Amino acid sequence: MSIPPNPQRVTSTAPWQELQDYKESFVGTTLREIFNQEATRVEDMTIQAGPLHIDLSKNLADARVMELLVQLGEAMGLPEYRDAMMAGATVNTTENRAALHTALRIPVDQNFEVDGVDVAADVHEVLGRMRDFCRDLRSGRWLGITGRTIKQVVNIGIGGSDLGPSMAATALRPYRTAGIEPYFVSNLDPADLSAALDALDPESCLFVISSKTFSTQETLVNARAAKQWLLTELERRGVPADTSAQRQAIIEKHFVAVSTNREAVTEFGIDPANMFGFWDWVGGRYSVDSAIGLTLMAAIGPQDFDQFLAGLHDVDEHFRTAPMHANAPALMGLLSVWYRDFLDSQSHAVMPYSEDLREFPDYLQQLTMESLGKSVRLDGSKVGVPTGPVYWGAPGTNGQHAFFQLLHQGTQLIPSDFIGFCNPHGEVTTQPEGTKMHDMLMANFFAQTRVLAFGRTADELRAAGTPEELIPHKEMPGNQPSTTILADMLTPRSLGGLIALYEHITFVQSVIWGINAFDQWGVEFGKLQTSDLLPAVRGTADVAAGDGSTDALISFYRQHRNEG
Ligand code: F6P
Fold this sequence. Notes:
Rossmann fold, 3 domains, six-stranded mixed beta sheet, 15 strands, carbohydrate derivative binding, EC 5.3.1.9, gluconeogenesis, Glucose-6-phosphate isomerase, SIS_dom_sf
């Protein structure tokens, strides 16, 4: 099934032209003015998307802008491209693949066939095997080679094979109740693996080698080193590893793989019976809810993993069925285009007011920037307008004491998303008079978006008795846009909802720009260059990168490299 690249250029649509014209009179309008003019704004711009309560009203866009953005989405075929993606069309045209991550969370009682293949059955077969495996681990039925239960599960993977499961396992810390501690090793810097190995007990650890391609340098190097470490450490404890049968028996109990590449997994020495598969229609950065989530499932258990899938599906359904003017991912994606292309913003901040969600901005960086860091359209022509903003962020309240000053009184427009929860996991009551820490945290949360939106005027400062010479320094312009996302609690379900929300926001932007959100040719070329340079860096070939700077740097490195 295929859908042709959109021949329509966004800049030649009528709504784009109208937005250009309207922008001229809109620039300079304040959020205070917009709130005064639009009596039902908060109601109109608040959306329930699955488990997420989303307030868009503090965005720097009035009702007319929102109307034109919706028209822009329609002019670019957003509903049609959304439906095509979800139906399994080949939307990733440069790799000739579908992007069917929404099928990973399809409920068990729903059928879903693509080109004669029962995709739902395939997904649920793997999920079933994952559940059985995790139940065995958690109940102590799966034992290490010396008969010890598995207590430490180490995911070795990078990019999408690391960031999603690591972020989710951190976010769902309170759900890790079975005594299985998850670890994540990704970096080629040996410091990463060493730090994990220092904490591991070779008799009760299990490695999950996660790589869609099973050819990623970082993952294979770390996996080989982990294998060597395990054999050596077990041998020290009297477990023989002299024959290949003995080594195989150890690997069988302590290594499993998650991949689409059965052949490479077998070649690495992992029994294909201990491999959990997925499909080329799952992009790396969209794969946390595939078998790539195995370490997460081991840590939180199959039931909570099912809740996680349900949260993803909740938001898929919202994206699929809500009308565009009340569709949270559609509006958030369209607002991103508005800020990037009409109001010249360069970046987008994401602030989770939750320490457990601290890895969420890092996870989003791959999802959004690997997807939207493109400058040509699907048909190969130049996009011609700025695309993907830089996504960044840090948890509140820490961010308030680091970079918020630039948001409050700097010179750049930086839209942001504030993510908070009505209830914490575990209350802590403190001074004064039994105040709950979570209420304090959330008072900060609400205060920041309020100040960012509405600022503080010179008149208000004067009325508060501020000395005249300090007024320019204390005046806050406001009009810094934000979206507030609230959920009841940070649960598997609300986390699933958040992930699907941002997956779809990313897709929406790609449709408007007409770019491919599912390939990453720049990263692929970076990998090739590394292989080309390695011999010179190792000193087994002459330095000949071809450009003076790289040649000189590698020569300097070689001269200062201590061998041995
Ligand atoms: O970073 C580039 C990339 O290709 C990502 O898209 C992917 O998530 C990551 O490498 C890891 O790839 P693999 O799962 O095949 O090891």
